[in-house]
Amino acid sequence: MLESYYPIFLMLGIAVLFSVVMLKASTLFGPKRPTDEKYTTYESGMEPVGQARDRFSVKFYMVGVLFILFDIELVFLFPYAVNFYELGLFGFVVIWIFLAIQLIGFIYEWKKGALEWD
Amino acid sequence: MIETLLIAFIKIVIVLLVLLTAVAYSVYAERRISAFIQDRLGPNRVGPFGLLQPIADVVKLVFKEAIVPRNANKPLHDLAPVISLTVALATFAVIPFGNTITLFGEEVKLIIADVNIGVLYILAFSSISVYGIALAGWSSNNKYSLMGSLRSSAQMVSYELSLGLAVVGVIMVTGSLRLDQVVMNQTNYLFGVLPAWNCFVQPIGFITFVVAAFAETNRQPFDLPEAEPELVGGFHTEYTGLKFGLFFLAEYAHMIVASAIITTLYLGGWHLPYIDMIDVSPMLMSIIGILTFVIKVTLVLLFMIVIRWTIPRFRYDQLMGLGWKVMFPMALLNIFITGLILLLLQ
Predict the structure, then answer these.
(1) CB spacing of A5 vs B115 below 8 angstroms
(2) Distance CA A45, CA A48 (A)
(3) pTM for the whole structure
(4) Quick check: B141 and A99 CB within 8 A?
(5) Domain contains B326
(6) How confident is the model at residue B299 (pLDDT cuts 50, 70, 90)?
C-alpha cells in the first residue's frame, strides 16, 4: 500500500537535488565583484524608501480566509465524488444541502462587497 | 523492493530528462512563435534555426553573478526557487504517460508512482507552488516583489478553488481518484462514435479547468504578477543568474505539467481513439500510446503559447471578479448538472 508512494519520495529527492545543484552552480561559477550599490534593493534606480515589511491591503487577507473556507468545502466533496454511484440520490440531496449552506455564506459575502476590488 | 525502486529510478531519470529538454524547447518555441506573431524573426543565430539557443541561455545564466540584496532574507531567498522548481517537476510523478510496455519480458506501467490518489496529489502540489512565489516576494524585501507575490498568491488561491471543483466533476464520472482509471474511463465511445473524452462529457468543467489552469500557471491573460509596466518583474525582480533561471524553468515546467494534466483529465490521456479497431502488436500499441500523449501535450502547450500572444492582460479587479463571481459558481453548476445527469442515466 505505502510502497506505491516510494517512487514519489524518490522523485522529490531527485527534484530537490537538481534544484539545489542549479542554485549552487550560480554562486560557484558566477563572478563575484561586490559593490555597495549592487546590493541595495531595486527601486527603479532611486534610493529605496523604507522597507517592504509594511502593511498591505486587507483584501488579500480576505481572499485567504475565503479560500480556506471553500477549500474545506472542496475537501468534503472529494470523498463524496468517489462514492457518487453508491450514495445515489440520497447522497446527492445531502451534499447539496451542505453546499447550499455554504452558498448562503457565499452570497452574503458577495452582497457585503467582500469580492469587490476598488 | 530494490527492483521496483530501480525501475522507478530509471523511469524518473528518463521522464526528467525529457521534461527538462521539453522545457528548454518550449521556451525556444515560445520565443519563435511570438516573434512570428509580431512579424519578427526571433532567436535564429545559435545553431541551425537557433535551435541551440536554450543551451546558450543556460550557459549565460550560469556565468552571471549571484546577487542577494543586503536587506533580503537569505535562506528564504534561496529556498523559494527550489520550492517552485521541485513542485513543478514532482507533480509529473503521478501522470500516466502511457498504458504498459513489455521490456525484457517484464511488464512496466508507464507512470512513475501508481498511487490511488493521483488527483489529490496534483491538487496538493499545485497548492504548494504558491509558497515558492509568496516566499520569493516576501524574502526579497522589495516593494515590487512583495506586491507581485501578494497578487500572485491571491490569484492562485482563488483559481485553485475552481480548479478543484472542476475536477470533482471528472471524479464523479470516473468514480476513482486514480489517474490511470480516469484515462481508462475515456477509452469508451459516446453513442458508439465520439471518443468519450471528458471534454465532451463535461464541457463546462473542461472550460473552467482550462481557464483555472492558465491562472494557476500565471500565464497570459492572467500573468498579473509579471505586469512589467507597474511591478517590473513581479516576485522575481531581485533574482539573478541561475536562481532566476530556476523560476524560469519552473514556469515552463508548470506549463508542461498543466498541459499534461489537461490531457490526462479531459483529452483522453495516452489513448488514441479508434486504434483498438485495428489489430496491432502490444509493443507498437505502447509506443503509439506514448506518442499520442506527447502529441496531445504539445498541442495543448502550443495553444497556451498562442493564447499568450493574442489575448490582452486582465485588470486585477476583473481577474479576481472572474475567479470568484464567474468561475466558482460555474464549477458548482457543473457539479450539479453532472450529478443530475448521472442520476438520471443510472
Answers:
(1) yes
(2) 8
(3) 0.90
(4) no
(5) yes
(6) very high
